[in-house]
């Protein structure tokens, strides 16, 4: 859907000209003739950007800008960017409009190329902020975050001067005297370097002689890992209109077309640092939300949502490398009794203790996930049957040998039952089937008496009569066949002991 721009101007000819130019650029244009009409149009038309004249019949463009900013700050979405159009280029009026909250100031006659590039840049920034805010709001609605306090910290500003520009050093000194931000002056070749503290803003001052030296730095700064998220301000000279328009499409966040002016740069730096801090906070909240979606909050292990696609990737890798992998499904024995006898806090302590012991005992490449309740899934790449069985037996012995210390210095011993399934490359086992086989082996370990390890390949497939649901009527005996062995459905575990059918419900 095309972005909607509200044009505010009392002169009909000006509105018509702007509407034609913006409509040709595929924008949806709405119009207002006064400041009050524009404020009413905000609720009705919900524009994405406002383009207003500096002089209106009922108020100034600056007053309208301040009113729009106040309304935007009280709303849930991002602020509506406002661009003010001045009839003449007066530095004082320009600074006053920027200080009132205008994102930019255009002076008539307006350069169409620069204007359209500026509008594209502002709308891209607003859409990006809106997406981050939407994800942040969703995360808060899920209870995954709390509002954090804002701390005003000095910004880090890197001023880049391509080519010899003696006046730039004086500009940097004046900036340092006007702001608490950390200002550093670097050469063009040092602009993307990693100093351990990525800059909040990079200011590129175009050379007055050879045009385009600073312009060529913008794609490098935007692609570099150190400065990728930094805000970029491009300062062009008055005669460099083409470079100014290109800078916005090459990644610049803000633009100055009147050369390096310290008063204007101070205002723009403050805005860009604020925008950078907001973007950083929203991105951090989104990363934390994604982490919260795949991490179990109690144990700090991955959850089932993360484990399922991980097992699929592990299976694909095993097939490609033609190496086996193992899935271990472990369950705490008599865990309900722990909760009943000692309380749920004790049960949580047992789960946390087990998760720590699993981390300490397994390799970094092994996945440990809380599968649900007191069940844990362990995925071990490049692991054959013998290694998997030895590891499972080691985990059982470790849990049984070392009691868990509860509050009040109470100690309880909790054991593990583990089912193990091996994925072989030649077999092309589906991960879901392998998990099901490990779960069946875990049932068998429970029925075997708990504190045991059962390998899935020692189990026989259950006949239909052992599946859940009503049993079918018994078939009539065939006198031509020998009598059925009552132990035909029993199997042996790893220690050779017989065990009951593994399809029974887990105690």
TrEMBL record:
Annotated keywords: Nucleotidyltransferase, Transferase
Response regulatory domain span: 4-123
Domain spans labelled GGDEF: 323-458
SMART domains xref list: GGDEF (SM00267), REC (SM00448)
Swiss-Prot/TrEMBL catalytic activity: 2 GTP = 3',3'-c-di-GMP + 2 diphosphate
Biased composition (Pro residues): 470-485
Region of interest (Disordered), residue spans: 466-507
Statement: the UniProt record of this protein carries the keyword NADP: no
GO molecular function: diguanylate cyclase activity
EC number: 2.7.7.65
Enzyme class: transferase
GO terms, biological process: cell adhesion involved in single-species biofilm formation; negative regulation of bacterial-type flagellum-dependent cell motility; phosphorelay signal transduction system
One CC-aspect GO term: plasma membrane
One Pfam family hit: Response_reg
Keyword Hydrolase: no
Descriptive protein name: diguanylate cyclase
Organism name: Sagittula salina
């Amino acid at each position: 859907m095309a972005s909607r721009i509200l044009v505010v101007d009392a002169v009909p000819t000006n509105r018509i000209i702007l509407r034609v130019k913006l409509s040709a650029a595929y924008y949806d244009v709405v119009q207002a003739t006064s400041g009050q009409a524009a404020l009413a149009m905000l609720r009705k038309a919900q524009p994405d950007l406002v383009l207003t004249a500096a002089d209106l019949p009922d108020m100034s463009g600056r007053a309208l800008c301040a009113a729009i900013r106040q309304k935007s700050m009280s709303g849930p979405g991002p602020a509506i960017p406002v661009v003010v159009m001045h009839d003449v280029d007066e530095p004082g009026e320009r600074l006053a409009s920027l200080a009132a909250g205008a994102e930019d100031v255009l002076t008539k006659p307006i350069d169409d190329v620069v204007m359209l590039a500026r509008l594209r840049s502002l709308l891209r920034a607003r859409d990006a902020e809106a997406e981050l805010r939407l994800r942040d709001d969703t995360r808060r609605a899920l209870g995954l975050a709390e509002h954090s306090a804002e701390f005003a910290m000095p910004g880090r500003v890197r001023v880049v001067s391509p080519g010899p520009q003696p006046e730039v050093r004086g500009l940097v000194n004046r900036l340092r005297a006007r702001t608490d931000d950390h200002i550093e002056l670097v050469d063009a070749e040092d602009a993307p370097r990693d100093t351990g503290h990525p800059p909040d803003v990079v200011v590129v001052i175009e050379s007055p002689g050879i045009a385009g030296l600073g312009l060529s730095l913008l794609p490098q700064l935007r692609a570099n890992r150190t400065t990728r998220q930094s805000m970029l301000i491009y300062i062009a000279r008055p005669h460099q209109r083409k470079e100014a328009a290109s800078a916005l499409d090459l990644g610049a966040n803000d633009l100055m077309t009147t050369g390096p002016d310290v008063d204007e740069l101070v205002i723009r730096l403050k805005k860009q640092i604020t925008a950078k801090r907001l973007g950083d906070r929203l991105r951090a909240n989104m990363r934390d939300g994604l982490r919260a979606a795949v991490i179990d909050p109690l144990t700090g292990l991955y959850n089932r949502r993360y484990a399922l696609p991980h097992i699929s990737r592990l299976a694909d890798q095993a097939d490609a490398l033609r190496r086996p992998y193992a899935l271990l499904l472990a369950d705490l024995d008599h865990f309900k009794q722990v909760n009943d006898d000692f309380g749920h806090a004790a049960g949580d302590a047992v789960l946390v203790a087990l998760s720590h012991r699993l981390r300490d005992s397994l390799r970094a490449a092994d996945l440990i996930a809380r599968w649900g309740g007191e069940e844990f899934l362990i995925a071990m790449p490049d692991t054959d049957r013998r290694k998997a069985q030895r590891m499972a037996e080691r985990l059982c012995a470790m849990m049984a040998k070392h009691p868990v210390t509860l509050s009040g210095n109470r100690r309880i011993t909790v054991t593990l039952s583990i089912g193990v399934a091996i994925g072989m490359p030649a077999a092309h086992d589906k991960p879901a089937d392998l998990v099901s086989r490990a779960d069946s082996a875990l049932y068998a370990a429970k029925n075997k008496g708990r504190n045991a390890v059962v390998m899935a390949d020692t189990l026989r497939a259950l006949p239909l009569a052992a599946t859940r649901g009503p049993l079918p009527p018994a078939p009539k005996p065939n006198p031509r066949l020998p009598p059925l062995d009552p132990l035909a459905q029993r199997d042996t575990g790893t220690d050779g002991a017989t065990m009951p059918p593994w399809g029974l419900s887990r105690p």
